[in-house]
Design goal:
250 residues; two-stranded antiparallel sheet; 12 strands; globular
Length: 250
């Protein structure tokens, strides 16, 4: 195929991969974190709806716990989801990195833009999703939504014993730092190459692309796209959801 016959970035179809195979131990014992309820609905369903709310997203792939694929499929079937969006559930792996790769492998060939989104960020606004997609369509190979930091950050020498005082090594310039969120967006070929090349344990897909030496760009994130990791985060998420329902009938 000649370069002239390839679809332009604006014509590429967009799929979202949501790795949801983790146990979420910091929220305590019980169901996997993605299946914990928020406003009576599992967080995973909120996250799926948030990605499907973008008219650019035509496929959402949920990567389920290896022993929970049938449960997640039943969950999706039991909740109202946009009919214009296709949904697929695949079993995940032992790590987030492996689960994302399995989700990538499940994508049909005609999807050229891939979003990777944390199931534990159930309230990301659709405007943030669209901003990430638009940046990839405009030619970026990797895009992350992010927010400036409100707190001063210290680099420390980790204590050998938890709870002991830790020496400060440096104070990074806060104006140059950002707290990264999801969904992160990618040109599919770049993300596939990252997963085929980078074998180190990396905390996010954008970090894998950085290891390739490819540029990653930041677009504005949103305060409601926070990650539900600890019990207090769940309280905040409930409050945000209640406010949305009161104001918007969400």
């Amino acid at each position: 195929m000649s370069d002239d016959s390839r679809p332009s970035p604006a014509e590429l179809r967009t799929a979202a991969v949501i790795p949801a195979a983790g146990r979420g131990v910091r929220l305590g014992p019980g169901a996997p974190k993605a299946l914990r309820t928020l406003g009576g609905t599992p967080m995973l369903i909120h996250a799926v709806r948030a990605l499907a709310a973008s008219r650019a997203v035509s496929l959402v792939v949920v990567v389920a716990p290896p022993d929970g694929t049938a449960e997640v499929k039943s969950l999706l079937d039991a909740h109202a989801l946009p009919e214009r969006t296709d949904f697929l559930v695949v079993p995940g792996g032992d790590s987030r990195q492996e689960s994302v790769k399995l989700g990538l492998d499940a994508l049909p060939p005609d999807y050229g833009i891939v979003l990777v989104h944390d199931a534990a960020r159930p309230l990301v606004p659709v405007d943030t999703v669209d901003a990430v997609i638009d940046a990839v369509r405009d030619g970026a190979h990797a895009v992350v939504p992010a927010l400036p930091l409100a707190d001063t950050v210290k680099e420390v020498e980790p204590a050998a014993v938890p709870g002991e005082p830790e020496p400060v090594l440096a104070t990074p310039e806060r104006a140059r730092l950002r707290a990264v969120q999801t969904p992160q967006g990618f040109d599919r070929a770049t993300l596939v190459r990252a997963h085929e090349t980078v074998t180190d344990d990396v905390t996010d897909c954008a970090g894998m692309v950085e290891r390739l030496g490819e540029p990653v760009v930041v677009v504005p994130g949103h305060e409601e796209a926070f990650k539900v990791t600890r019990p207090l985060d769940l309280v905040l998420a409930e409050a945000v959801l209640a406010r949305r329902r009161l104001n918007d009938g969400f």
